[in-house]
Each structure stands twice: as structure tokens, then as C-alpha cells.
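Note to self: user wants both folds in one dump. Writing first protein now.
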Amino acid sequence: MNAMVSISTTAAPKRRTFGELLNSDLRALPVVIALVALWIFFAIQSDIFLTPRNLSNLLQQSTVVGVMALGLMFVLLVKEIDLSIAAIHGVTSVLSAKLIVDYGFSPWLALPMAVLIGAAIGSCSARWVNWVGVPSFVVTLGLGLALNGIQLLLLPATARYGLMGTGVEYIAQTTISGASAWLTWVVGLALLAGLIFSGVARRRRAGLEVSTLHSVVLPLVGAGILGAIVVLVLNASQGIPLPVLIFVFLLGIGGYVLNETQFGLYLYAVGNNDEAARRAGINVPFIRMAAFAIAGGVAAIAGIVASSRTLGVGVFSGGGVGGGTLLLESIAAAVIGGVSLFGGRGAIHAALLGALVIGTVQNGLNLMGVENEVRLIVTGLLLVLAVSIDKIIEKLTGQQSF
């Protein structure tokens, strides 16, 4: 009997099925498969698609939507929605341009001010939601319309501020090539290794089993190979564009916050069950306000990158009145990448994968000479398909995540 008890207590833990893994660790697999399929399709349709120059353009085109989706992800995690991020994007970019052009502010001062103002606007939305109890959908929709009006008031009679010669244009025009690009790859891989080792050490201190192969070796090798391919391709063009590095840097910070900090844990807790989180002693209103502030600040960063690429700001900034396609594409990128609209689930790579899907569709259809209307139709269908696949996986595995 003692032997039997000993055997039962030392038995290996039950291995998870593929369906269970697909519902958790491998949640991004359908998105990756879809992205590969899109690349194969567009490569067959156009000889230009896989050229280094076009791939560099694709990454740059995906940057603004990716940054917006990254900020929006924090709000979605706490089971809220922010429909004002495109308007924040527009009004902060116009405000920074006004400070630089009309009042002679240095970009080193005006641009950080724009980011802080964006964060302040976002936190005000959450404060109103917390105080009055109005759904964030209504609050941010109304705020977005108000910000559109402010954006128009800030513009001059020409309805546009040109930024050529102000120094802002260097953000989009700067590239890192040659040995500097490879050094950037080494530094990035080292930072990723530090993040992975930190997570492994934290799990082991908690008494959890950690597979060195699956948790350390495979992620590092995979990231190293993928990063090397990206550097090779971009070096064959003009190098790594600075906006792409900014996006990667923000992804790194976001990954650290979500995976290695108590604040990240609280975000998931509030999104899964805000009442249970409140009873556990978590300051739910503060966490919600911080999430909206992050979304607002990150939207302002996206506005800076966009204005640098277009060499100016105007009525069109932030997608125009109502957010245009920018708002819809940002939401679609986050959801397609794997962030739940019902809170509590989503990894940092969702912003990257979703933005690449949106950027690939836009770039590939443009190369095929397809009208913009068709691109919107395809993007909308992809969003519905992504959410549908998500729900089908949950039904097949019997594990509801929302």
C-alpha cells in the first residue's frame, strides 16, 4: 500500500492535450497560419511583394496601427473599450505641430508634452466611467467627437501644418543599417533573454515546474532566427526604420509590464472578474484609469510617428472626423491578434500579429491594384473570422475564456 501511495504521489502531471494548448499557449497559432497563407497568396499574385523594399514598406505601414492596437490592448484587458484613441491620436499630433510651428517649441519638448496630454485625456475618460458609471463605449465615443472638434479648432486656415524642416521628419526618415542593425539585434535578443530568465526564475520561486526547452531555449532560438531574418531583409533595403524600432521597443515594455509586474497581474484579474479583484484588495478604479492612460499616451506616440511619415498634420490626422478606418483597424488588429473583447485575455504579441495581418492585406491588395473599398471588406471579414475561430476553439475544447 505504501508503495502504491508513493507511486501515485510522484506520478508525472497530466499532459495537456493539443486542444487545451490551442486554447492557451498556442492561441496565436491560427493567426500565424493565416498570416503565412496571406503572404503566400500575395507572393503568388505579385512579384514585388516579397522584395526587401516592399517588406520594409509593409513593416512601416503596419507600425501606426500596431502601436494603436498595443495601447488599446490594455483597455480591452480590463473589459472596457476606448473609441477615442483615434481622436487622441489626431488632436495630440495637431497640438504638438501647433506648438512647434506657431509657438517655436522644440520637438524635444512638444512631443513629450503631447504624449502626457494623451495620457491625461485617457485617464479622464476612465475617471468619468468610474465616477458616474456610464459605459466606456458611450463616454469615449462622445469624447472622441469632442476631440475631433478641438482638432479642427487647433488647425490654421489652411487646415494643415507642414512639419518639413522642424526635425519631426527625422523620426520616419531615420534608418539603422549594416553593423548597427546587427548590434541592435544583439541588444534586443539580450533584453529578451533577460525577460525570459526573469520569468523562469519567478515561476521556480513560486514552486512551479518550468521546462527549460519550452520556456527558454525554443523562444530564444525562435526569436533569434526571426530577428536575424528581419535584419537581413531590411539591410538589403535601407536598414531598420526607426518607427519599427519604436514599435518593437513599446512591445518590449508592454511585455515586461504584463508578464513581470504586479500591475500586469492586476490588469488580467480585473478583466476576468472585477468584483473578485475588488474583494481581493485590488484598487479596480485605479487599474482601469491606468489602462486608459496608457492607451491615450500610446495613441499620442502613434500620432507622432504618423505625422513624421506624412510630413504634416491636418484634418486627416487620427483618421479624420470619427476616426475613419484608423480606429476600426486598431480594434481589428488587437482582436485579430488574439485579445478578447470581453476582457482578461491577450498577450503582447497580439498587437504585432494583428498589425501584420492588417498591413499585409493593405499592402498586398494595393500591389494588386484593388480598390480601397475591397480592402475594407476583406479587413471586416477577417475580424469576424478571427473572433469566430476563437469561439469555435473554445467550444471544441470546452474551455470558455469569456
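First done. Writing the second protein, which came from a different request thread.
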Amino acid sequence: MIGHSFMGAVHSQAWRTAPRVFDLPFDVDMTVVCGRDPKGAARAAERLGWGDWAADWREVVRRDDVDVVDICTPGDSHAGIAIAALAAGKHVLCEKPLANTVEEAERMAAAALVAGEAGVRSMVGFNNRRVPALAHAARLIAEGRIGEVRHVRAQYLQDWIVDPEFPLVWRLRKERAGSGALGDLGSHVIDLLQHLTGERLTGVSATQATFVTERPLPTESSGLSAQAGEQRGRVTVDDATAFTGRLEGGALVVVEATRFATGRKNALRIEVNGSRGSVAFDFESMNELLLYDADADAPETEAGFRRILVTEPGHPYLGAWWPPGHGLGYEHAFVHQVHDFLTAVADDGSDPRPSFADGLQVQYVMRAVERSAADSSRWTTIG
């Protein structure tokens, strides 16, 4: 595993837990964790359960005892690590978004295509596909339960940088993160809405805003926390992004991604309206799915959304966990991700989903969003 901060800790827990919950096709040996600071990498290995540590990712991808490389670094290093690992015959799991630019993502997708012909697999980590309630929603939509999709509205709302004195961490620097709320949060809902509907976005009209343009430089940072110093620097990413769009089938889409929604901690919300019904989800109630069935045999005085508690053994992934009614949490989607990734590697037929090609398509959408926002919200075709 390359990187051991917030995402590295979450992925480590998933690698530790998945073999204890699921009957996996491989044994999992957490061989080595890598970080730029040797002391930090050594501490992470001990704390997170890795057998060894390294300070140079190039050393890791060359190791004969490594079969999988899990990339948990900022986006500016994804392309270099992933392409080298694939060329070395390692299966690759890469955190989202796939890269900082379309050009980098195209090179990654091309490398994955070549590696795939030799049986080397790759996947991008849009973990929210593996939340059981959302996996169940995808199943219902695919089965035609809500009919023809007509509207999708999706939001990802957080407030962790509302304080103007919060330090200028790497997520607020374009050269490290690629973009701000768009890539950090918006990429999740872009992937999710296309996954749920089975349709790609074809065009967008977008706007972006940066509310705090200067922040104190951090003296130290870890995950989403940091300590502020006295010097200041310029914020070079968006604080909030909003766009309208259309899907291939003609459905209207409205998306909002912000890290300035005061009071909202992790409100990933998505609602899909169809000709025969609707589904709605909010991550802050992640074990619940709301379903409206227009064909249900109920009087109009009792019609409305029905709350489904997604904890039954027949729901996606739940058969491996606890008795009905005992909900799962944030970390479990990453455990499911490990299960699906290794199952696909064992199958040796095609790349697991979302593939690097899927990640590239999300990059095309984000590029169109940025171009539209920079051009007075002009309608911009994706591609």
C-alpha cells in the first residue's frame, strides 16, 4: 500500500477485515506500506498491521513478494505509481479520482488496457458503489422497478473547511489535488449517478466558487486535520461546484458538491425519479433506502415513500455480516471493495468495476464541468 494517512488507514482496515468476513479466493498478506517519511512509514506499519515499510514506492512495485499495489496517495502521484505497477505485473487498486488531469487518466487507462490483456487487473476506488443500500438501489433500478429514469439529483455536502483559518492542506492546492470539491466529492456522485442509472452524462452547464481565497500554511497535517502556522498561501481549487446535465437517455441531472455546507458532515444524497417510482438515499442514514412505488396497491391517502432498512441477508453484502437490524458503517464499503476486487482478479476475465476506463470517463465529466464554469456556464459536451 502506497500512502498511509486517512485513506491508507481505511484501506488497511479493509485489508485486515475482509479475509475474516468473506471467503476470499486468495489469502491476504499485508506485506509492505510505503510513505515518504521513513519514521512515519515505520509507525504506520506497526499501527496499521503491515509486515514491513518502505520510503520509496519504486522499491515497492519491484518487490517479488507484492502482487497487488493499493494507491492511497494524493492525485498528483496516481499516474506514475499505477503505470509503473501495472508494467511490473501488479494488480492495482487506486483511490479516486483516478488522476488530476484527463491526460494522466488517459495514460493510466491505456496502461490498464495493455496490462489487462496479460491478466493484470485494475480498479478505481469509488467505494460508495459498495454501500449496501446503494447497491440495492442499483439492483432495483436495473430491474425496472422505477421505470424510465427522468430526473437525478445528487449532492455531496460537507463543512470541514468552513473556518477561514483552517490551514491550506494539500486538498486545497490544485497541483496536488487536481481540483477541490469537484474532485474530492463531486467525483463520487458523478460515478454513482452513472452507475445507478447505467447511463453516461452527455453534457453539463456548471458554475464554481471559491469562498476563502487565502489560508494559513499548515505546520503539520494528517487526514482532514491540520495545525496552522503564521505564513499564508493562496487556495487554488474550488470550494463548491454545481452543475446541471443530461444523461444519454435524456434524463435531467442536478449535482452539487461543496465543503461549505455548514452543519453537514458527510451528506452524500442521491435521488433518482422514474416513470414508475423513485429511490432516495442519504449517507448520513446509510443503512436506509427510500423507495416510492407508483404501482403499489395503496390508497392515495397512504401513498408515499417507504423506508427500507437495508440489513437483511438478502441485501447486497449483508449475508456475511450481522443479524438483521444491525447496521453497517463507513468502513464496511471498503471491506466490500476488497472482496469485489479480489473476486474479479481471481475470475481473470475482465477488469473489476469501476475500471480505469470508468475512472477516465469521470475525468471527462469533471473536465467539462471546469470548462463550462470557466466559460460563463456555457453548455459543454463531454468527451
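Dump finished. Worth passing along: The chain is about 35% helix and 25% strand.
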